[in-house]
Specification:
Layout (H helix, E strand, L loop, with lengths): L11 H20 L8 H13 L7 H8 L8 H16 L8 H11 L26 H14 L4 H15 L6 H16 L8 H7 L1 H5 L7 H18 L29 H9 L6 H8 L4 H14 L3 E3 L12 E3 L3
Antiparallel strand pairs: 1-2
Helix pairs in contact: 1-11, 1-14, 2-3, 2-4, 2-9, 6-7, 7-8, 7-11, 9-11
Length: 331
């Protein structure tokens, strides 16, 4: 049986970002007690960033007061949005990412008192030509959730692609952007509970101008790249609020944007090229570099080097062969 797979490409820049984020997650997970509940200031930071992207005017102090049950002076709609999003985040780890029922239940929670109960569920009206007709929405949502349950791609990439596809479908009458971010958080939190505490939305809100500059054609890959950059920033700032955030222009320039551009070679690829002598197996290269994580080595070293054309396989038509070796090219 063939499952639906969203059309997207994974660039060497995305792979480098994923590898670096995995390394940071591993380090922070070892340092943190992930069973501890999220601190109120972290939760309010998450909520404020998410709602601000949709025009909610509450600041972090007001949201902290709302979570503490205190009165604030603000519009009832803004207060309800904050309250219900907090409720949804409390339920987050009880939902399954590929469950249509859980998806619809989550939407009911975040839109409670904000829309007519009778119009909960998928939209019944068509939107612009950029979005599918309402008649196709139920099937497209099921296909997307089915992909979530079967894909072997990394959750970091999957969460970004899901966000993009969900926004493209626009399954509900309102709050689709909020639902897309909520479900992206669920996908990441099920991979590692650290993401339940991470204010990704606050970083996206802070750097949303860089997202607006992305060309409107073939958005999936550039949006994935920019979102992963925001996740990287959020991880660096996690429980280190004194550290100044970097803008997307200040992100480390070790993520090659063009595989064939030799000036964009990563430090990891340079290390690999330095130890390569003749034809070498993956195991031998890892041994020479003193690395033990096979998946990280493939993502950070082999794949970027292959895509840059700096190394080649000895058996290119059988990439998974047990006899596979690698050698430097003449480039």
């Amino acid at each position: 049986m063939r499952y639906y797979t969203p059309p997207f490409q994974i660039s060497s820049q995305v792979l480098s970002l994923v590898a670096d984020i995995c390394e940071m997650v591993g380090q922070k997970s070892a340092q943190e007690d992930l069973t501890k509940p999220q601190k109120k200031d972290q939760r309010s930071h998450c909520i404020q960033g998410c709602l601000a992207l949709e025009g909610n005017n509450l600041d972090q102090t007001q949201i902290t007061s709302i979570l503490a049950g205190q009165n604030v002076t603000a519009s009832l709609k803004d207060i309800q949005e904050a309250y219900h999003l907090n409720n949804a985040l409390n339920h987050l780890l009880t939902w399954q990412k590929d469950s249509e029922k859980d998806l619809c239940d989550a939407h009911k929670i975040i839109t409670m008192h904000l829309m007519d109960e009778q119009i909960h569920g998928y939209r019944k009206h068509d939107l612009s030509s950029q979005h599918p007709p309402a008649s196709r929405v139920p099937l497209m949502v099921l296909q997307l959730l089915d992909w979530l349950s079967h894909t072997k791609d990394h959750p970091l990439i999957v969460s970004c692609i899901f966000h993009y596809e969900f926004q493209l479908i626009q399954p509900f009458s309102q709050s689709n952007a909020r639902m897309a971010r909520l479900w992206q958080n669920l996908i990441l939190a099920q991979w590692n509970p650290l993401f339940h505490n991470l204010p990704i939305e606050a970083m996206i809100h802070q750097h949303q101008e860089s997202l607006k500059e992305i060309p409107q054609d073939n958005l999936a890959e550039p949006l994935t790249t920019e979102t992963l950059k925001m996740i990287s920033i959020a991880l660096k700032l996690y429980r280190n609020p004194q550290e100044k955030s970097q803008t997307s222009e200040q992100m480390p320039q070790e993520y090659p944007t063009t595989p064939s551009d030799s000036s964009a070679v990563t430090p990891q690829v340079n290390r690999l090229l330095h130890v390569m002598q003749g034809e070498m197996t993956r195991e031998k290269m890892q041994e020479e570099l003193g690395l033990s994580d096979r998946k990280s080595f493939r993502l950070r070293y082999i794949v970027p080097a292959l895509q840059a054309g700096l190394i080649e396989m000895t058996i290119p038509d059988k990439p998974n062969s047990k006899a596979q070796k690698y050698r430097k090219t003449l480039k």
